[in-house]
Write the structure tokens for this entry.
Amino acid sequence: MAKKDKKVAVVAAAPPLAPTKATKSLLAEFSQSISTSYKMYQKDLSENQKLRLIDAFLAFLVALGVLQFIFCVLVGNFPFNAFLGGFCSTVGQFVLTVSLRLQTLDVKGEIFGSITPERALGDYILASLMLHFVLFHFIN
């Protein structure tokens, strides 16, 4: 039997895509928007003490949630309902605090209408008490 020559097709690999002008301008625009947003946030933070306090509490809640999750992964979740209650409490309190932050920053009443900051704080306290009451009974 005669051997037939096998033809192997060689496909040249495409060169890596170089960033185009549009990509570079998009990245520059994105970077500029991030830096502008950060500068405006820093300006708002320096002017408003309530915003600084709420944001610090939000950062604490995020850190607490991460710490609870890491503890659950490393040590175990034997009383799973206790972990679930604590983690849901942290997430629920975070959501309620973000709501309070949005309502207190709406000074002109454009978004929330006639809700005063005092009423927003009262709603926040009542909702927090209800959240923790429900989760306390969930844990048993």
Q: What stands out?
A: The chain has a mean pLDDT of 84. The chain is about 75% helix and 0% strand.
